[in-house]
Structures
1.
Amino acid sequence: MTQNSTVVAQMRQLIQMLAKHNHAYYVMDQPTIEDSEYDQLFHQLKALEEQYPDLLQADTPTNKVGGRPLSKFDNVTHVVPMLSLGNVFNQEDLFAFARRAEERLPNQQIEYDVELKFDGLAISLWYENGILVRGVTRGDGETGEDITQNVKTIRNLPKVLTSESGQIPELLEVRGEVLMPKAGFEKLNAENEAKGEKTFANPRNAAAGSLRQLDPNIAASRPLAFYAYGIAQCQPHHNQTTMSASLQWLTQFGFAVGERQFVCQSIQDVQKAYEQINQERPNLSVEIDGMVIKVNDLKQQQQLGFLSREPRWATAYKFPAVAALTAVENIDWQVGRTGTLTPVARLNPVAVGGVTVSNVTLHNIGEIHRLDVRIGDTVSVYRSGDVIPKVEKVWPEFRPVDAVEVHLPEQCPVCSSPVVMPEGEALARCSGGLYCAAQRIEAIRHFVSRKAMDIEGLGDRWAESLLHLDLLKDVADIYHLHEHREKLLTIEKMGEKSVQNLIDSIENSKKTTLASFIYALGIRGVGETTARMLANTFQTLDALREADLDALKKTPDVGDITAEWIIDFFRASHNLEVVDRLIAAGIHWDAPIAPTRQPLNGESWVITGTLSQMGRDEATQMLQALGARVSGSVSSKTKCLVAGEKAGSKLEKAEKLGVQVLTEQAFLDLMKEYGVYSA
Ligand code: IVH
């Protein structure tokens, strides 16, 4: 075998494995491997393709569309127009649809194919000799847009038709729908929200927005899927005689079809299938807005033909609306674990898609302004399957004269501390910190964590139960838990021994360092390093409490915004109260090394490469004891780089910037001189 054919064989094997797992994931809804394993296979293939671009396989799923962003989409005229469907909304209309068909097919038995009505975007796919050559949107039904580049990025769509049993048609035009499955939609929205980017109102908008991207790399990054529902052209003919069989025939080439489909012998059975699916709708992996009822026999379809732009052999049977109108009775502000304030609209309860909705999040004050929603307004509430309900729009025409505008509260609704909304941020926060009941659990977890007060077991194991028993109103109560032994013993799985261990580790935590204590307070923006810098600079807790903005800003590692947050924290009397109670409970520390003994105070050092005589942690601790800040990257502000064996790019950068470089030995000598190292 030549090297090329070995590479091709490897590529083919990977492509086949990926296709198999895609099928299991999208079609069977039963993933056979972990996502991370899939990614591994995927990256293996991608790496091969990068190494051997000439051997790239046409059906690769790596989305290597190779295209640049388009400036616009080309128009394409559909050879077979993409028509629409008539609608029925209830049993009576459904039966009338069946009667009309029966009248045109006297003395014939009619079988119905019942499919999911996907709520996505209709597209047409052209395959010539088994190769996907074109993907086109429905457009106005006559002319659509050429979105081939984007379509090729859809993972579950075969780019090359292969089949073990059947012959590959010379021409095949498949019709179907592009969708974003619910799970992918929620993940995409969560990721976008975390990045502060735009979220999509529903999977349909997300799918439409993704397909209409001129840059195929964007479409490639979106979790789109294609589901086939029809064959517009096939040469030579596929020889199937029914709708259901022709869809089944498509699956041999790797096309996904709906996860539910029924063949019904009577229109009464169609009604039952519809009711069943309406129930199961929240459990489906994709969004649907009804069912499509088709006469199953293809010959009968031909006999029935079309009436203007709609087939007489098919109709959509829509589900009751998933959007509903209701009134906003109030807008409350909820305080999250990290102090963020989220507005929640309390609604006059309304059924949306089979579920009663009485609360809906409005995300932030910006969203309230965008929607211009007021208390008393009529809104449409949208719910897609099991996706969280959302306010779609406000109906200003129904606005009562006494509708109340909503403003960001000035005080936290839970603890009455001032609400702050830093400039440029979307989220408002309660400044209550340790004092705010809503933020307690997080504050407690942070307070007891290893780098803070280091109270073992409390954060992970007991914090929630202690809160439920009302034993922890704030972190200072931790040091009074020993007064409640009896109550502690009522906690599930908390025996005498656990109680004693907990009380012992609380007692042991009382001796700490000023830096750990400052860190434990959970002041916004004050991480471990900043806490250490504050301890070194201010030396005592009292000095820190009284520090003004200027003094704080001068502290190494403290930026302007953090300086303000520190001021805010120590200005709040309830925080001071908690701090005082902690000190009164016996928390103490040795005075930090005085600045006179901190010759490297405020300097930024970087350690790189492998040190032979100690670990990096130890070297870091020595530098920190002398007041230096140890950073991970070299910049013009770096005072000195300690370069061990195999120092790479950091050393190069330091040399370029003229930063002083110390070998390990020179570093150790210096540490000896300062008295923090002896060997
Ligand atoms: S068959 C002659 N089957 O519904 C038209 N359409 O209102 C044949 N749709 O734009 C269409 N799921 O995109 C058919 N299982 C399904 C469908 C389906 C969704 C969409 C289709 C079309 C719209 C028609």
2.
Amino acid sequence: MKHLLLSASTLLLLAGCGQKAINLVPQPVQITAQQGQFVITHNTPLVLQNMDASSATALYIQEFLSSRLGLHLPSGSDDAAQALRFILNPTPDAALPAEGYTLQANANGISIVANTDAGLVYGLQTLYQLAPAQISTQHVDAIAIPAVDITDYPRFEWRGSHLDVSRHFFDVEYVKKHLDVMALYKLNKFHWHLTDDHGWRLQIDKYPKLTEIGAWRVDRSKETWLSNIPPKEGEPATYGGFYTKEQVKEVLAYAAARNIEVIPEIEIPGHCSEVLASYPEFACDTFPYIVEVGPYWPPKAIMCGGNDKVITFFNDIMDEVIELFPSQYIHIGGDEAEKGNWKACAKCQARIKKLKLNNEEELQSWMIREVEKHVAAKNKRIIGWDEILEGGVTPNAVLMYWRGWVKDSVLIDAIRKQGNQVIMTPNTYCYIDYYQTLPQQATQVAIGGYLPIEKVYAFEPIPTGLSADEAHFIKGGQANLWAEFLFESTNVEYMLLPRLLALAEAVWSPKEARNWARFEQQLPNQKKRLSALGYNYCNEVGLIKDAPKE
Ligand code: ACM
Ligand code: ZN
């Protein structure tokens, strides 16, 4: 690790720059700046009070202090003076909501107190943001933390970041880097989009062809995504990859230490060219499906709704996914399933007739309910994109709303009639694969659209029209990052950052604490921190007033 011995004057410089104005994103619930500071040195005792010293959180705190702040602190006893303390309440403080924490820094030391490990992890992120922004590249012998009293907790329980690893594959090392930046901004749900037409990314023992065939496509990474040049006769499929179960376990442990729940998404019944390329017998027809290399529309691939083997396949996949992922949730996709093949398929039509269904939408709902029954028997819940409402869903299904052009009254109806819970990810505020500057000014090609950071910042997860009681059915919100145009992880970071910070405030901070002018002023300092941590980001700020006329 880089460890520089710096002079007292350098210390003063680091303590002085930018630290007068406290810069925290997301904005905490309550913050009171006090006079003075506490200087953490290599001799400051680290007290982990009421904590198991070998717990993932205790180890994470120590690893974080050393790698991010260059501090290898001696451990101190509970009564140590002038200490940095992390205190787990022995009996929960009822005034502090789940994931909340308090942080008090003054001349006598720093105390971070929480009811849960999650709260301590968030207190740690806040402590890090109180340190100078450049600290990660310039470790010093002493770090001045301004005196402050903070009480903080999230507005929403679901604070998500979605990553598509099918259209382009990102390795475990990048996934961990993604989890780190999520933790820094207090996001807690990683929605891992593991399967789609362009590649299957998860080891499944019972269906090995999913990764032998379905994880690989011919390499068009030297072309633009839109060129979509089909495979030539005999051309080898060399672009792709997948995560082994061991790698997934490594990611899960890494995420858990950062209070991040990993929600796997397995797309059914559409977005499945890669499945049909691997197992053509699951299609309605004999079309030669391939692992797609570029855009195509409309999406023709759909697994046969009349074939019992398809239902067995779904259940088998769910069994392996449930065994691997501890999350209560499994995302089953359900979006954009074009049903042309089902209309022409004798097996699908026979199933519709036999079950007395009214149409193909109801056939999709029947399939999803079959899977839901299977996972519910193992105490798991499904999440699906909002299309799953079209043929009816059970009250237990969680809806992920993405189609900003479909009136949110359909959600309000589902909440009122059935009590479905909802996660808000409307494309109009949350699709961070859209351009963040005007397309003609962009330095990186995007899928289209225009979603400046100022608009992400204006995201309000509670739809108008819901009463305060009904608002409780909204679990929170999430930024979605589709990866068609993201060839490298640096491209991912460019689209993610800094818009993820705006989303983080929308789902963490109290509504009344949000203020675009204040947030915009904070961005340069936050970018400095992101640079020090080695992240790429977009350096322009797109504004709502510049939006092109529709
Ligand atoms: C989606 O963007 N098709 C969920
Ligand atoms: Zn069929």
